[in-house]
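Hi L.,

You mentioned the student needs an example of a multi-chain input paired with its predicted structure. This one should do, with 1117 residues in total across all chains.
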Amino acid sequence: MLYREAGDFKTSYPDDSQTFPIAFDRWRYWAVLAIAFLVIPFVINDYWASSLMVPFLIYAIAAIGLNILTGYCGQVSLGTGGFMAVGAYACYKLMTAFPDVNIVFHVLLAGGITAAVGAAFGLPSLRIKGFYLAVATLAAQFFLVWLFNKVAWFYNYSASGQINAPERFIFGTAVTGPSAPAWAQYLVCLVFVTFCAVLARNLTRGSLGRSWMAIRDMDIAAEIIGVNPLKAKLTAFAVSSFFIGISGALFFAVYLGAVEAGDSFGITKSFLVLFMVILGGLGSIFGSFAGAAFLVILPVFLKIIGVDVLGWPTEMVAHLQLVIVGALIMFFLIKEPHGLAQLWRLAKEKLRLWPFPY
Amino acid sequence: MTTKKLMTASVVALMAATPVMADLVFPSLSYRTGPFAAGGIAFADGYADYFTLLNERDGGIGGVMASVPECETAYNAEKGVECYEATKAEGALVYQPLATSITYQLIPKVEVDGIPLHTMGYGRTSAKNGEVFRHTFNYPVNYWDGASAGVNHFLDLNDGSLEGRKITLLHFNGAYGKEPIPTLEALSEKHGFELSTIAIDYPGQEQKSQWLQIRRERPDYILFWGWGVMNQVAVQEAANIGYPMENFMGIWWSGSENDVLPAGAAADGYKALAFHEMGSDFPVFDDIQTYVVDAGKAAGAGDQIGSVLYNRGLYAAFLAAEAAADAQEATGEPEITAAMMRDAMESLEITAQDMEDAGIPGFGPVFSVTCQNHGGDGLASVAQWDATAQEWSLISDFFPSDGEVVNALIKADSEAFAAENDITPSCD
Amino acid sequence: MSADFLYGIEVIINGLMAGVLYALVALGFVLIFKASGIFNYAQGVMALFAALTLVGVMEGQVPFSHVINAVFGTEIHHFGWEVPALLAIFVTLLVMILFAWLVQQLVFRHLVGQEPIILFMATIGLAYFLEGVGDLMWGSEIKTLALGLPQGGSLVVEDWTAGLGGDDFYGFFIDKLDMVATLVAIVLVAGLIGFAQYTKQGRAMRAVADDHQAALSVGISLNFIWVLVWSLAGLVALVAGVMWGAKSGVQFSLSLIALKALPVLMLGGFTSIPGAIVGGLIIGVGEKLFEYMIGPMVGGATENWFAYVLALLFLVFRPQGLFGEKIIERV
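Structure written out for the whole complex:
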């Protein structure tokens, strides 16, 4: 009832192959976009932007990136933190070397540089797979962080090794630096998220995405039907790293404004993004958003409940938070191993039949 | 765009206009969890207990109660930002970010929000130049003072000459650990000692390679910039290779009970820099017992009182309370704002009498702050661990660092920052 | 012999002993992976939890005292007794067995037949959970592990070898704790191999590792075997936790030692016990030697990544690992 696809007839090929073939989905998609672009910027404040919305959007980009690699192409990676660092440092070097160029290009270029680095670190995937590959990507993680810490050129020889984002403008409004208004930070991230999500969604529906999924489902069979594993795997690494690089650049320039490689892009970051992807749902763009939202909002929510409402000591709440997040992860995996996206699919099934279940 | 800006501005203004001004708010960005919890717990307890004492004993500061909302950062930059944004609307007077990474996040933010930042013995050293860093304070000492004070101590031990000696800096491989390198390089040129640096990666659980290298090179002195588990392992490994502990000196963050207790008797004689007194042999601790502990209002488990980091938290609270009282006096208003707090911090003067009145005679160095100098006079002291008595004690007076070397470096670094960020240094 | 050469040998000896400790952690991974196909990320946190429990029991700490105090406003911390070390180790083992049983009953029993990545994720969830529980139970301050293990360089070895290399050579440095750890690890591995070869449960364990279905059909209870391997992994975790905890005190960072074991696993294979041991030794020696020879040229602190790069290079040329069976894939 609520979720209808009946009466949705297609009379042309473009109709049939559009992104959201069901009219209801299409309307929902436009409604979400409209709220995100036209309502939220007017009501957002500093706290909401920098504690929830901006990190959520940035992590969503990273999760989409990792989902392409892990969810669509089946290559588990634990190097996300390292690749985000590449994006951040590339963005910093570009911002300081070419101060007159618009930051949007810096971010996109940073994504491109990360794509190249990611493809290089993706080479071992041609020889090893599964957990061995996952652990191998840790080599990228540790090596890149060490590199950014050690080679002073990357942080312009500053005394402490921190990189600071200088103030940059889009259409006359600051988007980086301390005086950037909350709505501008939010909007910049939102534009990038929309761009990345649309790009990812269409890539995964195209021939490239199909070749990734063929490799994921069975690499030898894929090879026999003519998918080039070298090309498929390396493009997956490159495209995935491109998104992750963008998220790293935004993470540094827009969200935090100052980072240090070991501190902000450590191994915990890699795990966090992997959590998002798996909790959200492997092989689902919507899942990437759901996972990112879940893991960004849940800790803040638990903290507000524990500290502000119940008045418990902060360290106890922080420990309980670990217990609850851990327990929830296990619970979800037991109840729904395919993540929040699968729950959403099931909900749609139910809504389609509601209120007459037969 | 302009309408949007206006709308947002009005919404933000609404949100910002509503803080409750009943209390003097001193947010505590603590870290009682995560890899550095052991250090964070004691500091946060000391910080909270001192304000509780003022509330219970004196009825607050100048008749206004102090409140210390605590927010857990787990030493993590993202959570630190969240904490800052969550508490700043409550009318926060001063922030102690307590982590290098959070400090670097907040330095530009506080400039815009107009809230002072106090990074006591950590953070960005060149913030001492108040002409560039208007809202950031790092009195009474900073890392470069520390490096220089350490070298000065070694100079004293060698009748004023380190010619031909070898000093090794063993450091955390990150922003914090790399801070003292420029200072030590300058000092090594000045005094003719040979400097080598050895980095330890986070977390520092495994340091065999580093200590084998030290054993091979046999430096005369080791300066140590470590934090967390790195400290305990380093002290243990130093004992293992039989390095003379009295030649091994940590920065103040590598000199608490936590760092030496696991090594037991072998840690005896280990030194650390300090900028405040150790132990609980001060009148204020009697008051804390009476008004805070016995009243059941102690922060945390209440078992940290008198430990090194507890005293540091207490000292930070004391400095903040003094500045708040000065601000009340200067403006005649009991409910001060962050801007008044900043002005008071910029003209802060801590005299022996001030410390006497607060029940902590001779607890820290005597110093004063000006606009040009947000970092005090760089006085530090050396503490040594006595493993039999299980206590740290100061073995020197507060002595000055090499201002000539340190200040030149601060000037250069802060001016580079100013140029990079289009700041015109000024005191107006 | 030149001093540099001798120091190189010293580095190798110390690398070998560090490698034994890495192997010890890796062993815990292998045990579980072999029997159930679970890549147990929580192994490091298990080491932390076991060590915390050991110290807590020895000192007679009241579990969850922080929580109880915070909720009920009481002031309890200790039972007021001290438990001798051996008894405390025994109690800790019981706790680890209970933990193994709970994990099996509540989590992994419901995940049988899932993809490996899902099982892996569940263990990460478990790691979070256990870390939080450990902190809530025993508090997050640093605890000193007073088992009376010897510490410090062995003077006997140092004096004995000091004459080998002239004035610049001060004799080999060998940490007594490392020697003890090596001994304990050898005993533990010998015991595990003996258990697997000569006992009924051990044989059942190997049968399960070979083939679940076949093992089931001859009447082996998979559930029991899985509880057993988790318990054994708990035992290994306890030993690893004690050996590392003796050096640094028992604290959060202990859980990060899992990261040291991962390159060992890559090198040795996830399913091979000898692989874990030899892999551990290679990684230990490799990273120490690299730090000694190349480290000073590139600024040091290379150990964290070099272990991974070493394992990666190795795998690219020999994907099945050191002792892993060559898997021939057919369509």
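You could point out the following to them. Chain A has a mean pLDDT of 88. Chain A has 15 helices and four strands.

Best wishes,
N.
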